[in-house]
Please model this.
Amino acid sequence: AMGGSASLIPRDLLAEYQELTFLSKQEILLAYKKFSELLPKEERESACSARVPKSQILTLPELRANPFRHRICHVFSTSEGGDDSMSFEDFLDMLSVFSDSATSDIKSHYAFRIFDFDNDGTLDWKDLEQLVNCLTGQGEESRLSSEEMEQLIKNILEESDIDKDGTINISEFQHVVSRSPDFASSFKIVL
Amino acid sequence: DGSDENEEGSAAENEETVKGTGRKRATPRTRRGRARGRDRHGDEEDEDDEDGTRRAGHRRHRNRRRGRAAGNEASDSDMEPAKARKNQANQKSKEEEEEEDDEKGGKSGKGKNEKKVDKKADKKGKKEKANKKKKDKKKSGSGSDSESEEEPITEEELAKLKEEVEEKKKLIATLRNKPWKMKKKLSVLKEAQLFVEKFEGALGKGKGKKFYAYKVMMTKKWMKFQRDFENFKTACIPWEMKIKEIESHFGSSVASYFIFLRWMYGINMILFGLTFGLVMVPEALMGKPYGSLPRKTVPRAEEATAMNFATLWDFSGFAQYSVLFYGYYNNQRTIGWLKFRMPLSYFLVGVGSIGYSFMIVTRTMAKNANDDGGGDDTSFNFSWKMFTSWDYLIGNPETADNKFASITTSFKEAIVEEQESRKEENIHLTRFLRVLANFLALCTLAGSGYLIFFVVRRSQQFALEGLENYGWWERNEVNTVMSLLGMFCPTLFDVISSLENYHPRIALRWQLGRIFALFLGNLYTFIIALMDEINLKARYFLSFTMLEEEKIVKYNMTIWEASLYNGTIPENSTAPPIQVDPADVPRGPCWETMVGQEFVRLTVSDMMTTYITILIGDFLRAVFVRFFNYCWCWDLEYGFPSYSEFDISGNVLGLIFNQGMIWMGSFYAPCLPAINVFRLHTSMYLQCWAVMCCNVPQERVFKASRSNNFYMAMLLFILFLSTLPAVYTIVSIPPSFDCGPFSGKTRMYEVISETLEHDFPSWFGKVFGYASNPGLILPFILLMVLSLYYLNATSKSYKEANLELKKKLQ
Model:
C-alpha cells in the first residue's frame, strides 16, 4: 500500500511538498494514504486534486475527539463554496502546522485563527466565551455559570489585552502564547 | 513598532508620486540613502518614480487582499525603508515578507496577479536589482564603484545579482514558515526556483565560472543528502507508533515518560557499544582464553556448582569468571597481534562513559531550558489555561471527556483561588500539620536507611557462614528489601502529604523531593554497608592469603630442593616451573568483581520487582476489578480499588535511579550496560502493553513539561553522585593484586602514566608532567571559577533587561 501510494504522488511534487512543509517524506506519504482512504473508491486515483467533504475529515481519529475540529477544518480549507471541504494540499498544510517540527510562530498564528470564531481578526468577548464553552465539554453540568464565565474572561483580558481595547489581537495572542512552555507540545497532531 | 510605521505610511499615502514634496517624502529617501550607501545618485530618481507607482499599485492590491485585517489600511511603502533600517535577518515580520514577495512577484506597475511568473525578468532585472538593494543591509558587493553603466555585466551588478539569488534561496528555505496556503507557496516556490536556476548560470560568467558551477552543484547535492539523511533519521526512531498511540489515549504527560525511556535507551545503547566493543570483545577475542590463568578459571572448590542455573542467576560460577566482570581481565599491557592496550582501554572506556553521560545530560538540559522560555511565569495563568490547555494529541473520546472535566475543574479552581487569594486561613493549624508531616517523612527515611544497613550486615553474616545453608530469602534479602522499600515508601509519602494541604503542583514537588531523598539514602546506605563488608572481607582474606602464599613458597622450595638432588635444574633458577592447575591456585580477594556482582544482582532484582509489580499491581488488579465487579457489593470500578492510573513520577524516578546504579557499577562490571539495554527494551514493551491494557487516563491531568528540567536536573545530580564512588576507588584504593586489568599497580590511574612512558614520545610525557603540575592547575581552576562568575553575571543582566523590555511592552 505504501509503495503504491508513493508512485501516485509525482516525485517532483513530493520534493516540493517536503520543501514547503515541516513534514518528512514518510509523513507525507502516510498523509496521502490516509487522505485517499477518506475518498470513495472511484476518486482515489486522483486524490491529489480531489476534495473531501468536512463530514469525512471529521471521522479521522485524530480529529474526532477534538473540540475545535470544525474550526480546524474551516481555517485550513480553501474551498470556495464555504462548505469547508479539504483538498490534499489543505490536509498537508494542516498536518504541517500541527507537526512536531513546526515553529511556535506558525502554530500560534494558526491557533489564533482557529480560536477566532467569527473570523474578524480579533478575539473579542464572544469568541472567548465560545472558546470556554468548547473547552468545558458538551454536558450542561460541566459548563461554567455566567458569573464564573464573566470572571474568567475578565481575568483573561486583564492578563493578555495589552492595549486595553477589549479584544485580543494577533500580536497580543502570540506574545502570551509564546511564553507558555506547554503550547508547542500540546498543539500537535500526528497521524 | 509595526503600528508606528503604519501610521506614518497612511499619512503619506498618496503623495508618493509627487516628487520630493513634504517631509515624509524626504525621510524615506534619506533612510534609503543610508541603507544603500554606495548607490549612484542618478539612478535613485528614476527608481523612486517607478517605485512610487509600483508601490501605489501594490498597496491597492494588498488592501484588497487583506480585507480581513481590520484597520490596517496601509502597510506599505514606508515599511520598505523602515525595513532597510531593521536587521534583515532578525526582524522581518510577516507583512514585510509578503510585501517583499509582492515586489518580487509583480514586476509590472499595477500587478494584480502577484503569482505571475516573471519570464521577462531580464528586462526588469536592473530595476529589480536596484529595488532589492534598498532592502539589503549586508553589503557584500564589490568595491569598485568606478565602473560605468555601459558594460553589460559589471562586477557590481554581478554582486547585486548574486545577492538576489541568495535572497531567493533564503526565501525558498523559509517558505515553510509562512502561514500561506499551499497553492500560494507552491507558486512562489516555483517562481523563486526558476529565478535561481536562470541566474545561477548567468552568474557563472567571469572568472571562476567552472568553480562556481561546481560549487552550486555540490551545494544542491549536499542539501538533498541532508534531507534524505533527516528522513532516514526519523525513520530510524523506534517505537514511534507505540508512543503515538499512548499519546492519543493518555495525553502527552504519560507519553513523556515513554519518550524519556526511549532517550535513556539511546544513552544505554551508546554505553553498551563502548563497553562491548572496546572492552569485552577485545578481551574475548585476543586475550588469554578461559582456564589459562588463575583469575580466569573457576576455583576447584566451586567447580561442581559452576554451571548450575542458580549459580548463574546469582552471577557466580562461570558468569563470574568471564568477560562480564572486572576480575577476568588480565593486566598484560598489550594483547594480541593488534597490540591492543587492554588496561588503558578499560580505564578510558570507564572514564569516557561517564564523560559522555555528563555531556549528553547537560546538553539536553540546556535544550530544555531554551524551550522553557521565561521559566515559571505565573503572569499568564488564565490565558494559558485557556489557550494552551487542550492536548491536541488526544484521539480517544473517553480521554477527551476526562480532559474536559479536568479543564473545567482547573478553571473553577483558578477562579476561586483568584477570588480568595487574600483570605487568611488558619495558618497555625496548617503550619503544625506541615511540620508534623515533615517529621513523619524524616522518620520514614531514617527507618528505611537503618533497615537497609541492618539487612546488609545480616547478609554479610550469612556469607561468612556459607550461603548454601540458607534458603532463597536469605540469599536475596538485600535486593528484595531495597526494591520493596522503593515500592511502598512513596505511597506512604503520598498519604503523609495529604496532611499538608498544598497546591497540587507544590505537593508534587515535595513528593518528588521526598522520593528522591529516599532512593538516595537507600543507595548510599547500601554502598556504605557494602564498603564495610569489602573492608572486612579484604582483611579476612588478606590474612588468609598470606598463609596460602606462605604455603606456595614452601611448596616451591620443596620442589626446588627435590630437583636439586636430580641435578636437572640449574641452581639459580628463580621459579622452577610447577605445573599447577590454575583452578587450584588460591585466589586473592577480588573486591571489584564482588562490587560488580552486587550491582548486577541489584539491577536484576529491581527489574524482576518492577515486572512483578506491574503484573500483580496493574494487570491482576484490572482483571479482578473487571470480572469480580458483577458479584461484589460495591462498585469496584469507581470505588476501591478501581483501575490503576499510570504513576508517572514514580516510574521516572525509578528509571533515574536504575540508571544511577548502572553508572556506578559499570566500571566494575562491563556487562551492566548490556543488561540494562535488555531491561529497557523489555520494559518498553511490557509497560506499553500494561498502560494500554490496564490503566485508565488520569483524573488530574498534569502537564509534565514543566517537570522535564526537574527530572533532568535530578539525573545530572544522580550522575554526579554515582561517579563519586568510582572516582574515589580509582584514585585512593589500591586495586586487587590478583585480578583485573590493573593488578600489580599501586593505583588504577597509573595506567595513564605507564602509557605515556611507553607509547608516546618522551617530550609528550614531559609536557604532560608540566601540565599536571599543581602550579598550573590551580590558576586554571581559578580561571574557570572566574569565567563561571562572569557568565552568571551576564546572564543575570540579560534576564533583567528582558524584564525591563517586558514592562515596557505593557
